[in-house]
Structures are given as structure tokens and as C-alpha cells.
Amino acid sequence: MRRLLWAGCSQLLSWEARLCARKLSAAAAAATPCRNPWSPATSGSSPGASMGLLWPPGHGAPCRWGSQFNVPPSAQFVARPVGVCSMMKLPMQASAEGLDAAFVGVPLDTGTSNRPGARFGPRQIRAESVMVRRYNASTRAAPFDSLQVADIGDVNVNFYNLPDSCRLIRESYQKIVASGCVPLTLGGDHTITYPILQAVAEKHGPVGLVHVDAHTDTGDRALGEKIYHGTPFRRCVEEGLLDCSRVVQIGIRGSSYDPDPCKYCRDQGFRVVPAEECWRKSLVPLMGEVRTQMGDKPVYISFDIDGLDPAYAPGTGTPEIAGLTPVQALEIIRGCKGLNIVGCDLVEVAPMYDVSGNTALLGANLLFEMLCVLPGVKTR
Fold first, then answer.
1. Does residue 357 surpass a pLDDT of 60?
2. Residues 312, 314: Cα–Cα separation, whole Å
């Protein structure tokens, strides 16, 4: 297999790059390099077992020598379009074993009520993530100096049977969380959060929830069905997956079928923050209150990209005007620093409605911000 991969890669590289690669490969046995970001990682492979093939002479791989962590390659040495399309060009791994955190795609949009297309969200988010670098210069977070992270691919969903897709998602995430890995999910429509929380709550018990969205997603049923992207959090309440005293929903807005569309949420004990309460202000004070509310118990972050105003994120299935700004999105996620976060998702990116790619780029950056606030991430 390695010979076949080398033969294929050799056709793509210039003569000078191939010569460089051979020299680096020959030096690999005598060096202690960092994890090769270009070869698939396996649960049995040891950190620092191989060397990246594409680094030019005089330049090490994009981390300190001897690092035990996977590190995204630098565009200073490897062109962004080169290589397999993984999240931040991290190594691909077959399972979550040995990882502290993992990016996971769930390309499902069978539960969509308006414009379909979120099944292509994970692929486009990964493509746009080439712009995301290894350090968070604003918060000083250094996730790749702190945690072992990889992309573990996509859940193989069933487009033709939504309940069966939920089963497949739940079973996949049961394995992920059982390994001790924190999943960061690339959606997919918001239906996927329901089976993910089934798996997360199975390990951690009822969790707190920081939910950013234009919609509460607490409907009971539509067209006679109880599972679609407008019902996940009602199903979670019914199954005891949420600690309702520690649920906050931010950015809720839009017209409704009822005079008080948030009544169910408030009746359960959720804190609902309508978009109007967020207009023209910083959300840093709000997040101080949210941290107090969440305490030190497990918390899950679910971020629907339609929580943002469609001026910033038009590539989604159910856009609502007058939403949050990207700055406020950063304030919300960065405000979760210090919480006991056990999982995150970014859902409802439907790329075909935004030819610029900016919605997916926003999604990739927000997922990186979520990675940066996970427990155990150091600052530099």
C-alpha cells in the first residue's frame, strides 16, 4: 500500500520535491519527528512514527521535534490544495481510539424542512478549513500542543430511513465517547444532535446545553413525524438527556405558528435569549452568567449556523433575518472556556446556497474555536 501511495504521490510532485522527500524519508529512522500529517493515523501507531514527505530541506514538520500530537501542516511549506481533504488537513484515523478530540462528519439532511443540502456540509467545511491555522492568536489557545486530534471521517448514514440514520449515529457516537474522546461534529441538519446526545448522556448523564440557533428545535411533530430537524431537543427532554436547569438557547427569532413559540422551552426551565436581546451589544456579560449557570457539570455545545444572520451565513436551509454576528458567535464560544465540555456540533451548513464558501468557512472557524475551549487546552 505504501508503495502504491508513493507511486501516486510521485506523479504529483516536482523532481525537486521528490528528491527532498527521499532525503527526508531516509532521515526518518534517525530522527524523532512529529506525526506525519499526510499519512492515515491508526489507533495502533505510535506518535512520531513517521515524517511528512513534503517539507523542504531545512524545515521541520509544523511542530516542535518530538511532539506527541498531530499538527496541521503549514501553508508556508505545503500548498493548501494538496492532500486529502480532512478537517484542517489533520491525519485521518479509522476510530477515536487514542484521541482526546476528533472531528466527525454526519452528512445527513433527511430531516430538513425547507432547503436540502446540509448533507454536503461536512465536505465543504473540511475544504474551507484549509484556511484555519494551528494557533488561536486572539485567545492564545494552542490545541495542537495540548490534545491529540484527528479527523475520523463520516458516519455512514441511511438517507432513505431517518430513524435508522439516528440509530447509526447513536451507535457510532457510543464508541467515540466510550473511548474518552470528545467529538466535534460537522453536520448535517440538526436532527443529528438527538442521537449524538443519546450517546453522550449514556456516558455522562443529563448534560447542560449551550444552543445557538434561530429556532428552538423543540417542536413535537411535523407531517405526522416526531423526528426531524425541528424536534431534537423535545425528544431529548422526553428521554431525560438534558439537565433542563442548565440549558440556554441564544439567538432565537423569526415568525411563528404560535403567539408564544418559546413557552415549551421556558416551561422546561430553559433560559431563552431572543435575538432582539443580543442586538448591538457584546455577549460577554451574558456568557459570564451562562458559565455560572452551567457550573462544573458536563456541557454540550450545539451551534446551528442559522443562528447567524444570513448576511454572514446565507448557506443554510432555513435562514432567518436579524440574527447574530460572527463577532457574537466568537464571544459565545470563547465564553464557554472553563466549562466541562463533552461534545460540540456545528450544523445546517448547506453549501450550494453560498457560492462564496463563506458559510462553510465560518463553520470551520467556529469548530476550531470550539476545539480551543475544550478542557485541557493550554495557552501560549
1. yes
2. 6
pLDDT digits (tens, 9 = 90+) for 328-340: 999 999 999 999 9
Tell me which residue of 234, 230, 213 sits closest to 346, measured CA to CA. 213
Are 214 and 306 spatial neighbours (Cβ–Cβ below 8 Å)?
yes
Give me 9's grid cell.
Answer: 504521490
User: Tell me, what's the pLDDT at 68?
Assistant: 86
Q: Report residue 185's pLDDT band, with 50, 70 and 90 as the boundaries.
A: very high
Classified as helix, coil or strand, 366 is helix
- Give the Cα-Cα-Cα angle 205, 211, 215 (nearest 5 degrees): 125
C-alpha cell at 374: 475544550
Beta strands 141-142 and 207-212 are unpaired
Cα–Cα distance for residue pair 192/185, rounded to 1 Å: 9
Grid cell locating 323: 440574527
Helices then strands, each counted (H, E), the chain: 10, 10
Residue 248's contacts (CB-CB under 8 Å, 6 or more residues apart) are 209, 210, 211, 270, 271, 272, 273, 290, 293
Whether the pLDDT of residue 238 is over 70: the answer is yes
Asked if omega into 8 is within 30° of 0 (cis), the reply is no
Per the listing, cell 440549558 goes with 247
